[in-house]
Every structure is written in structure tokens, then in C-alpha cells.
Design a protein that fits this description.
The protein is of the alpha/beta class. Helix content is 35%, strand content 18%. The strands form three sheets. Strands 3-4-5-9-10-11-12-13 form an eight-stranded parallel β-barrel, surrounded by seven helices. Strands 6-8-7 form a three-stranded antiparallel β-sheet, with no helix packed on it. It has a two-stranded antiparallel sheet with strand order 1-2. Helix 6 links the parallel strand 11 and strand 12. The chain is globular, with a radius of gyration of 19 Å.
Length: 339
Amino acid sequence: MTSLPLGASPLTVSRVILGAWSFGGWYWGGADDTASCDALRAAVDAGITSIDTAPVYGFGRSEEVVGRAIQGIRDRVQVLTKIGLRWDTEEGAHFFDTVDPEGRAWRITRNLRPDSVRWEVEQSLRRLGIEHIDLIQCHWPDPSTPIADTMGALRMLHAEGKVGAVGVSNFSTEQMDEARTALGDVPLASDQPRYSLLHREVESTVLPYCLRNDVGVIVYSPMGRGILTGRVSMDRSFPEGDGRRDDPLYHPENRAKVLGALDEIADIAASHNITLANLAVAWVLHQEGVTAALVGARTPEQARENAVAMDVRFSADELSRLRTVFSAVRINKRPGSGA
């Protein structure tokens, strides 16, 4: 099955969703807009019809690129974007500081105030060149704004037809409870948490909650930001502007552990004639409660490869072995510190 309904909402999404973070260039060391458009169209042709972006991905650039790429094929795609991370206002709760590929400094705030929600949706519609966002998601909780106020604004936008399904990202079960209550007869369609063979925290609370309450789950980083592809060798280095440069997961100490685990299960990928990247995504899609997985692509070849994961079927023994091997991988969050 290559598509599924998203929770209790009327929206159906492809099981692999194209994540367009890299289209914005920021964090990923730059981007080529033409290649990004080609990757999106190749993804759609391969059956990946859902596209996930956000205003903060390149400070508007990712949405603009997605908007150009979907011209002429809007009826074939589901457009998913987000609200709540602002770089152009001091309002809200400070989240982090960053620098874009051009060397410009940005201060990112979490802002889910009702007036900001409406303004962001209008800006996203303009950048994307569309009249309706299929799924709008709160990117991160905003501690400075009551969840009920945010959901009230989204209810109004839903009633106006500017947004369809309403979802959240990185929300706790308690925060999802608040959101569901405030949305009333508009279902909370989905949550978007991090989940992979290396990051399984959601299994204890978020996945069971979503199963019980018919909330879809769209997971991000199923390939551990690329490390589970097996293509990040021990001698690989990352340039300035690439966020993996400072990610503890890519420190040689942790990288060696992950590569060792991948060696142990490489025969499973080989037996299915798939890549390790396909294996990582397919494993996530086999987990109960998971609706879809976000996977990025910079080229048409990567996009087509990503689509393969939707057709993989692991045996119970293979799933058990994958879980066992990666349960033994202990990632040091402060490598070199002895922690």
C-alpha cells in the first residue's frame, strides 16, 4: 500500500513523503533550485505525491521552490507545510540562532500567536502559489502562546478553506490532548516526531497515543539525517554551513558504532535487493501507528530510490533482528567527554 488516510482527517498521503528541507539550502550546505525541482517531479512520478516543507527551510526559499515545481501538477500532489518558527520578528519564545549559506545571522523564535498563524499561512500560500494548504502543521510548541489560541486561529482558517487538515510536530501527548480539545469537530490529523532505528523515544508514548486517538504519524529523520544510508564513511567531512558538521551523531566515535551495526544487517538489504537507505525507511513504515515517513532528496535519482521503500516487505524475523542490532547501539550525545 503506497498511500494511507492521515488519521481521522479526509486527507490521504503517500507513505513516503518528500521532505523539502534541503531545498532551502540552509543547514544542508546550499541547494540547487533546478535540481530540487527535478527531484520533486521525479518523486511525484515515482508515487511520492506528498510534499512537506516549511517557511523556515531557507527562510522562504524551500516553499518558493516547491511552488515552482508543482506548477501544472497541483492536482497530483498534497502540499504539507508548517507554521510557528519565525525569523523576521522578535515576538515569541527564542528557539535558536543560526547562519544561512550566505553568512547572514538569524534569530529563530517559536511563535504560534493567532495573528502570526494567519500571517504565516497567507505568506505560505503566496510563496507556494496555491489557494489551499492540504496539511498545516505547528512546527514546534510555543511556550509563550496557549495551544487553544493557536488552534482557534487554525479552526478559522480551516473554515475559510485556506487550510485543510490540521497537524502538529514535536508535540507531547499532553499537548496533543490540548490541541484535540481546542479543535473541536476538526480532527487533529497528525503528529510529526523524529523516529528511526537510532531514535525510538516515541515508541513509549507518542505512537501508542496516536494509535488510540486516530492521529496519523508522519515521522522525520528515518535515515538519521543520512547516517543510516551507510554512505557516510569514516573519512567523510562536512563543510561550513552543513549542520551535520556539529551533530554528535556524526562524531567518529558514534559514526563507527552506526557503521558497525549497518554491516551486521547489510545481508537483509541485499536479500531484498534494496539499499541501506531503503531498509531504514522501510523499517519505520513497518512500525504500528506510522502513517508515513519524510525523506529528503536532492536529485531525481535519490527521489526514485526513496520510493522503493514503499514496496518493501520484511519478515517478522528480519524486523526482530533489525530491532535487536540497533538496540545495542549506544549513541554518546557528548562524544569525547567520557559521558
